[in-house]
Design brief:
The protein has 476 residues and is α+β, with helices and mostly antiparallel strands. It contains 12 helices and 19 strands. Pfam families: DUF3712.
Length: 476
C-alpha cells in the first residue's frame, strides 16, 4: 500500500499511453493544488479523450460582511435615500413642533419661582401696588429669551381660573439662575371675592400660597415656542398678628377737640416676607363683648418684623363706668395673671379719605387679642398725672359725682365712715379680692394695687375702703 499502482489506460488516437499515479491510502503524498487532473470524455464511440484542467481551487472563497454591505448598498442606495428623506420630513417637524417645546416646558415646570421679597400696598378701592423679587433657573449652557408676560394671581383651589390681580414682567434673558424683579407697579383689582379669600388666608394662617399663571414665547436660538408659566409658591403669612400689643399710653383729660383722650404707641408684627401697606387704620377696642374705645393709626406700612407706630384714640369713659361690673367680670381670668385682656378688631381702612373695602371686609371680621400688664396701665396712668395730661377734676366731671367723690377721697378728701356707715379695718380686703386666684398672679396683682394705694398716699381710710369694696363688687 505504500507504493502507487500503475493503471493502464487506453491510448489516444496516436497510440500514446498515459500513466497516472494513484495516491497511497496513507495520505503521505498529496496531489498539489496546482497539479494536473484529468477528465475523461467520450469524443466518439469506442474512444476516450483526456482533457487537462489547470489550477482548479479546492473551494471557492465566501465574501466578507463588508463586501456584502458594499454590494447591497450599490444595489439599493437610492431606496435608502428615499426612506431617509421621508423620515426627516416626518421627524423634523415633530422634533421642533412637539419634542423641543415639550422639553422646554418641562424645564420651566421643574424650576422654582422663589419669592425673596414682595410688596403689596393699597392705593385705592380699585387698585393696589405690587412689587416682586424672584428668580428663574435654566440648565447650564442654555440661554433662553422670554417675551414680556402678564402673570395673573389666583387661588389654585378655586374651580376654574379666577384671577384677583395681575403683574407684568418685562422681557427676560435667562441664563443659569437669573434674578427677576418687578418694580412697584399699580395694577387693578380683579375678582374681589377671590382677593378677600386670599387676604383672609394671609391674615389668619401661618403660611399661605401665592399662585401665578401666564403665557409667553421663549426663544432658544432660532427656535421659538410657547411656554406656560404656572407656579404656586408657599410663603409665610401674618399668623393672626400674634404679638400685637400696646406700648406706652397717656390719658388726656379733658379730651381734645376731636374727642381724643388716649395717645400712645402700639406694635404690629408682620410675620411674612411681604411689605404690606394698609393706609389709615381705625381699630375698635373691646373688653369682653363690650366696645370700650377706638384707636387710629396713620399711613401704616409694615415691613417684615415688628413695627411700632403711634396712635390716637378715644376711651368711651361713660360706657366704661356704666358697665364697670361687667368689664371687671370679663377680666376675672386675665387679672389672675396680672394683666388685662383687650380685643381689637378693624373699624375702617382708608387711603386719602377713600374706604378700602377689600381690606375692611377682612380686618373688620378679625378679632385680635392683646394682653396689657396691669403695672403698665398703672404706670401709664401715673405718668399721665405727672405730665399734666390727666386732670383729676376733669376726670371727675366725666365719670360723675359718685366717682368724683371717690377720687376726692382717694386723694385726701374728707370722710370718716365706710360705705356701710362704719369705720373698719381694711387690712383683709386685698385678701378678699384675691382669695380665689392663683398664687403667682394674685401676689403680682396684689402688690401692684398695694403700690398704687401707697403711691396715692391714701391717708383717708374711708375712701380707701370704698375703692377696695368697688373692686370686690366688680369681681363678683
Amino acid at each position: 500500500m505504500g507504493k502507487s499502482e500503475k493503471v493502464a489506460l487506453p491510448s489516444d488516437g496516436n497510440g500514446n499511453v498515459h500513466n497516472f499515479s494513484k495516491p497511497s491510502s496513507s495520505g503521505k503524498e498529496k496531489a498539489s493544488a496546482s497539479g494536473e487532473m484529468s477528465k475523461v470524455t467520450s469524443k466518439q464511440s469506442g474512444k476516450i479523450d483526456l482533457v487537462h484542467l489547470e489550477d482548479i481551487q479546492e473551494e471557492e472563497q465566501k465574501p466578507t460582511k463588508k463586501q456584502k454591505f458594499a454590494r447591497h448598498w450599490k444595489r439599493f442606495w437610492f431606496c435608502y435615500l428615499i426612506g431617509l428623506v421621508v423620515f426627516l420630513a416626518i421627524f423634523l417637524p415633530l422634533l421642533f413642533l412637539k419634542i423641543v417645546p415639550a422639553l422646554a416646558q418641562l424645564i420651566v415646570d421643574k424650576t422654582g419661582l422663589p419669592i425673596s421679597s414682595a410688596t403689596l400696598k393699597a392705593v385705592s378701592d380699585d387698585e393696589v401696588i405690587i412689587g416682586l423679587s424672584t428668580s428663574l433657573t435654566v440648565p447650564g449652557g442654555l440661554t433662553v429669551k422670554l417675551d414680556p408676560i402678564d402673570l395673573f394671581l389666583h387661588n389654585k383651589d378655586t374651580p376654574g381660573f379666577v384671577p384677583y390681580t395681575m403683574v407684568s414682567l418685562d422681557g427676560q434673558t435667562v441664563k443659569g439662575k437669573t434674578d427677576i424683579s418687578v418694580e412697584n407697579m399699580t395694577v387693578g383689582v380683579g375678582d374681589r371675592e377671590e382677593l378677600n379669600k386670599w387676604l383672609n388666608l394671609m391674615l389668619f394662617e401661618e403660611e399661605t400660597d401665592i399662585s401665578v399663571k401666564g403665557n409667553t414665547t421663549a426663544h432658544l436660538g432660532a427656535l421659538n415656542f410657547n411656554i406656560k408659566l404656572e407656579k404656586t409658591v408657599r410663603v409665610a403669612a401674618l399668623n393672626e398678628l400674634k404679638g400685637f400689643k400696646l406700648g406706652s399710653t397717656r390719658i388726656r383729660m379733658p379730651a381734645e377737640e376731636d374727642g381724643t383722650n388716649l395717645v400712645g404707641s402700639l406694635t404690629l408684627p408682620n410675620w411674612s416676607d411681604l411689605t404690606i401697606g394698609l393706609g389709615n387704620l381705625t381699630f375698635n377696642a373691646w373688653a369682653g363683648d363690650l366696645l370700650i374705645g377706638s384707636t387710629s393709626v396713620y399711613d401704616v406700612v409694615l415691613p417684615p418684623g415688628n413695627s411700632t407706630l403711634p396712635f390716637r384714640g378715644e376711651l368711651f369713659l361713660d360706657t366704661i363706668m356704666d358697665n364697670l361690673l361687667d368689664i371687671l367680670g370679663s377680666q376675672a381670668h386675665a387679672l389672675t395673671s396680672g394683666v388685662m385682656e383687650i380685643g381689637v378688631s378693624g373699624n375702617k381702612t382708608t387711603v386719602d379719605g377713600e374706604h378700602i373695602t377689600y381690606l375692611e371686609r377682612v380686618l373688620n371680621d378679625a378679632h385680635i387679642m392683646s394682653q396689657i400688664p396691669i403695672m403698665q396701665l398703672i404706670a401709664d396712668a401715673m405718668g399721665s398725672i405727672r405730665d399734666g395730661d390727666l386732670e383729676l377734676n376733669g376726670l371727675g366731671d366725666v365719670l360723675g359725682d359718685g366717682v368724683g367723690s371717690l377720687l376726692d377721697g382717694l386723694f385726701g378728701g374728707d370722710g370718716e365712715e365706710d360705705a356701710g356707715g362704719e369705720e373698719g379695718d381694711d387690712s383683709n380686703l386685698l385678701d378678699e379680692i384675691f382669695g380665689n386666684i392663683d398664687e403667682e398672679g394674685g401676689n403680682s396683682t396684689r402688690g401692684i394695687l398695694g403700690d398704687l394705694l401707697d403711691s396715692l398716699d391714701m391717708r383717708n381710710g374711708v375712701a380707701k375702703r370704698k375703692f377696695l369694696h368697688a373692686i370686690v363688687e366688680g369681681g363678683k
